[in-house]
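Bumping with the actual sequence this time:
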Amino acid sequence: NRAVSDTYANYHGLFVHDDWRITQTLTLNIGLRWDGTEPYIDRRGYQPYFRPGQRSVVFPRAPAGNLFPGDPGVPESDENRLNARPADPDRNNFAPRFGFAWNPLPKMVVRGAYGVFFSHATAQISAVAPEPWVRSTIINNPPTFSNPFGSAPPVDPNINESPTDFVFSEAPTVPVMDPGFQTGMIQTMNFGLERQLTSNMMVRAMYVGTIGQHLELGRELNAAVYAPGATTGNINARRPYPGIGSIRNVESAGRSWYHSMQLSATQRFARGISFQANYTFSKSIDDTSILISPANTSGPDPNNRRLNRGLSDFDATHTLVASGIWELPPATKTGPALLRHIVNGWQLNPIVTLQSGVPFTPFDSRDLALSGVGNGVRLMSNGDMELPTSRPRGEQIARYFNTTAFFLPPAGTYGVTGRNILRGPGEANVDFSVFKSFPIRETVRLQFRSEFFNLFNRPGFGNPVATFNSPNFGQITTAGPGRVLQFGLRLTY
């Protein structure tokens, strides 16, 4: 399909690493890595650029600022304007690594590590090539499937040959990458203590953190400016760069922070029992938790990224997961074989999960700012947004948070309430399984498995509807599955 971008990327990496045992109780791990990541390359040259005010010499009839492979001031391509890249490579990607393990006392280990890691740039800015290579149209509410264009002139399905005198549409969409794009960098660090309590039990306490810089996000560069008389019909006329519609810019301006305390206890299998319990107390903050390139992911106001900085979409303050295996001891070693087969060989396996709810953002999905960004607007607030979670379940389902605390912002503005300012219901779930083994021969065993997911049939509610212009605003309308029973047979030989 010639309308689809055909991309590839070159990747090179070098590293050096060494383990250095300083003493019998202290070991160091030191390394350095270089990552030669770079933005993808489009074999067909379907790569637009944006440089404000500059005119294209390759396509002279293109709107000002819209450039293409072969134009001055854009990344180099080959002589046929093929194999074009959206931005120049970022080669300064040196990633040091350091770690240590110290045994101050018998059965005790102190560990710590720090490392830098680099991500890969997005595979492509747009799956379908923009103008002048492909002219696309959006048909809303087609009259019929046999004649979707209705009275409008049909769209030529053939791929044009991109003549230099190509006539661009009134306001083409231009998906681009920032010319100063940098490779995303993640710093990870941890420090903790491990202690062996018995020959089979170990406990661990760790700090684990990450800091993200130059993370990829999408931002609208050509949002319409509000003015008296603004309507949805004159959005393109109010854009700062005339002749162009949406300019979706992939930038490396995102940041993230994650800090956590992680506790765990592990009992290795002994005397028919093993278990593991993990508890995490954490907080994660970022500018955006999603990347839908080249969509605007920096928030409703593309010129105020701080409005979108908040708790990560996946942030859960408390998480506890405990699981175990208990092989019941033989009830009898004598008696009839049938009796031994029935009362012996049982195994119980519980899994308990307790987790805080994840955050959500109240907003209005309409473009009340009349900016053409397409992310709706945030809201205004005049009171306490939360309601007690001790209320009866029915009241919480009908109105999980204080919906009367929110109201719409003035026309032409984006609202002031932040991202992920409220938190949804938590999770409390128990899965349980019972296994029964039947020895057939010395090396052959048949196991009957009965598994109970959500053993106590406790509803796991989803986040409430956060869309202000929805009739269900504030209501919980989704939930996870109820109790599920599963039975099976497993033959081991």
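The tokens above came from a reply further down the thread. The longest strand covers residues 247-270.
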